[in-house]
Amino acid sequence: MNDEQKIQQTIQMYFDAMYESDKDKILAVFHPSAKISGFLGENFAERDVLTFAELVGAQQPSAKAQDLPIRLETVSIEIAGATAVARVRDDYLGKTFLDTLSFVKIEDRWVIYNKLFHVEA
């Protein structure tokens, strides 16, 4: 599996974590020092990965349990050595998000180091 495929695999696990409200999957795909930041309307929101994982895990019943439709799209992936940036679009909590995910490659494993989100609709 090449680096782009490994990044796509991490993105898929990220999507699955959100869809399934799975805190442990969030912790598995994000670097422990990751930050999750963006705007919810006019308000700037910033969380550490543990707080974000708790938020995702608290969404019960999950979108999967509710059999809600899945929207996940990888818009782009750019790799530069052991770093990468991906843009992904997904629906979550009734909103469409455009996420910019930065990745680092640690011991042949790509993890999300930061998530910057924008609510499209």
Brief overview:
With 121 residues, this protein is α+β, with helices and mostly antiparallel strands. The protein has helices spanning 3-20, 23-29, 49-57, and strands spanning 30-40, 43-48, 72-80, 83-92, 95-106, 109-119. Strands 2-1-6-5-4-3 form a 6-stranded mixed sheet.
Secondary-structure map:
Blueprint: H1 3-20, H2 23-29, E1 30-40, E2 43-48, H3 49-57, E3 72-80, E4 83-92, E5 95-106, E6 109-119
Parallel strand pairs: 1-6
Antiparallel strand pairs: 1-2, 3-4, 4-5, 5-6
Helix pairs in contact: 1-2, 2-3
Low-confidence stretches: none
Share of β-strand residues:
over 45%
User: What sort of overall outline do the alpha carbons produce when their principal axes are compared?
Assistant: globular
Structural class: alpha+beta
Distance between the termini: 35 Å
Helix content range of the residues, please? 25-40%
Mean pLDDT: 95
The helix tally amounts to 3
Radius of gyration: 14 Å
Number of strands: 6
Biggest sheet record: 6 strands, mixed
Notes on the structure:
The chain has three helices and six strands. The chain has 121 residues and is α+β, with helices and mostly antiparallel strands. Strand 4 and strand 5 form a beta hairpin. The radius of gyration is 14 Å and the shape is globular. The mean pLDDT is 95.
